[in-house]
Structure formats: C-alpha cells, structure tokens
Amino acid sequence: MDGTVGAGGHAAGILAASAPDGQLLGMDVDPQALELARRKLSGYGERAYLVQASYTALTCQLAGLGWKAVNGILLDLGASSMQFDTPQRGFSFQADGPLDMRFDPSNPLTAAELVNRLPEAELAEVIYCYGEEPAARRIAQAIVRARPVTGTRQLAEIVAKVKGGKRGHLHPATQTFQALRIAVNDELQVLEAVLPQAMAALAPCGRLAVIAFHSLEDRIVKGFFRRESRDCLCPPRQPVCTCWHKASIREITRHPIRPAAEEIAQNPRTRSARLRVAEKI
Ligand SMILES: C[S@@+](CC[C@H](N)C(=O)[O-])C[C@H]1O[C@@H](n2cnc3c(N)ncnc32)[C@H](O)[C@@H]1O
After folding, report:
1. Rounded to whole angstroms, how far apart are CA atoms 128 and 219?
2. Does ligand 1 come within 6 angstroms of the Cβ of 27?
3. Mean pLDDT in each 10-residue stretch from start to end of the chain (281 residues)?
4. 150 C-alpha vs ligand 1 centroid, how far in Å?
5. pTM of the entire structure?
6. Residue from 85, 103, 195 to probe ligand 1 pocket by mutation (most atoms less than 8 Å from CB)
7. How far apart are the C-alpha atoms of 221 and 256, rounded to whole Å?
C-alpha cells in the first residue's frame, strides 16, 4: 500500500519489484496527483488500485478491497514536486499564487483563512509550533498589520522583511510556509492517527516505511517506532512491570536513512528526507 501515491514514482517501483502478481493500493487526497499516478501506472492494469482518500482511511479501504493484511506500507510525507511547482496551489514562495496550500481541494480551510483570520497570538503559535520559527511573534505581527494578505509572494516578502535576507540555502519564509501547510492539512495529527492503523494492517514480517521531511514528522515516527518496539513502557526505576506492553514491531533502521550526496545533487528537494522502516513482529 502506498498511502501517498503522488505521481506514482514509488508505486511504479513497488509494482515492478513485485511482478508478476503483486498488487498495490495507492491513496492520495489530491485528485490531480491521482490523475498523474493513474497515467504512470496504467501499464500495470488491475495490479494497481487507486483511490482518492486520506491514508487515515486505510483500514476501511483495505476492508473494501477484501484485503485482510498487506506486506508493505509506504508513507512519503509532505507535498509533491507537482504541488510545489504549481503556483496556483500556493505551496511555493518562489512564484506568486493564491494562499491555498491544501492537499485536498475539498478541505474548507485554506492558508488565506489562517493568515487573514487567525488572531495574532494564535497565528504566532502556529508559525512557532509547526515551523519551529524563532521569529514567529514578529512575523505574526507583521502579517496582521499587512492584512489582507492575498498571495504567496506578498506573504514571502512580509516574512523576508521581518527576518532579513537569505541565510544559507534556506529562504527566510521556508518555516512560515511549512507551518501554514502543516496547519491547513492537519499533517501531524493525521500522521499520528495513521501509524497504529498501518501497523495493524500489516501481515507478520510486513514493513512500514515512512519518509519524513522535517523534524516534527520524524519525531512522531521515531517516537512511535521506539515505543512499539519495547516490551515494557514502565518508568526505568520501577522494579516490576505493570504496563504489560508488548513489542509489536522491530526497528529496521535505528537511525534514519538519509539521501546520498549524489541524490541530493540530482534532486535538491531530497536533502531533508529521512527514511525509517519498522517490521511487524
Ligand atoms: C511527497 S508526495 C508523494 C510522492 C510519491 N511518493 C511519488 O513517488 O510520486 C506526498 C503526497 O501525499 C499526499 N498526501 C498528503 N497528505 C495525505 C493524506 N492524509 N492522505 C493521502 N495522501 C496525502 C499529497 O497530496 C502528495 O501527493
């Protein structure tokens, strides 16, 4: 199962590697992404099932197909290149577009709503918590003063003015855009919700692979893998276990796998990727 099928790149690799009869369920909330995946995977015929749904619906989607368990689940989190490179989707500060940032176009919440409607203190909290942005308060103040903020370029300029010029290879608005995208799509909550479901859906020895692109996501995946690979969760000083927790997974990657320098050179967007894999016991 590929829970974030996107343009179908990973899915095509999985289908090729599981030939001749491996089957794959590919899910995505974005109908444009699914259209790309449908085209890319058309040669695999009935081996590929594609559905427009959140990966949090994986349990009922698998039940709908009559699949009792799967051998592997992939979650490649965040936005796709197609989404970043389509200015109308509003994910990028590199081009001008509306403040949208929704993966799922039926989601009623857009980035424009947050930027123009949230009280200043709440906006600062979103930018601080989801962007780990130290200048969150000053940025929120500048945004509120500039309301209405209508486009990605205007927002990027407001943030750049507060933070000063570009430092290193990160645009000054990177963390603010990340924060708004996470809030619009409720990304951390859906990730927390899917991990136990994914483990329950795996067959014994099946594997869950998650590619995270920032530390907030990676922390959730790491914490879940650590907890679920332990036999007891009682405090270390407690002499006798009273929690009866049993390990349900084995961590395959104690440390995340990072892209090699060559891959980063070919595709700079991979530079922050961290892959963690766990196997169901
Ligand atoms: C990094 S891209 C995946 C790219 C894909 N692995 C490929 O090979 O083309 C992440 C995808 O996840 C989708 N997505 C984000 N949140 C989702 C969710 N809760 N459920 C399903 N898909 C989601 C996005 O729309 C996006 O297409």
Report:
1. 16
2. yes
3. 98 98 98 98 97 97 97 97 96 95 98 98 98 97 98 97 80 96 98 98 98 97 97 93 96 97 94 97 96
4. 26
5. 0.96
6. 103
7. 10
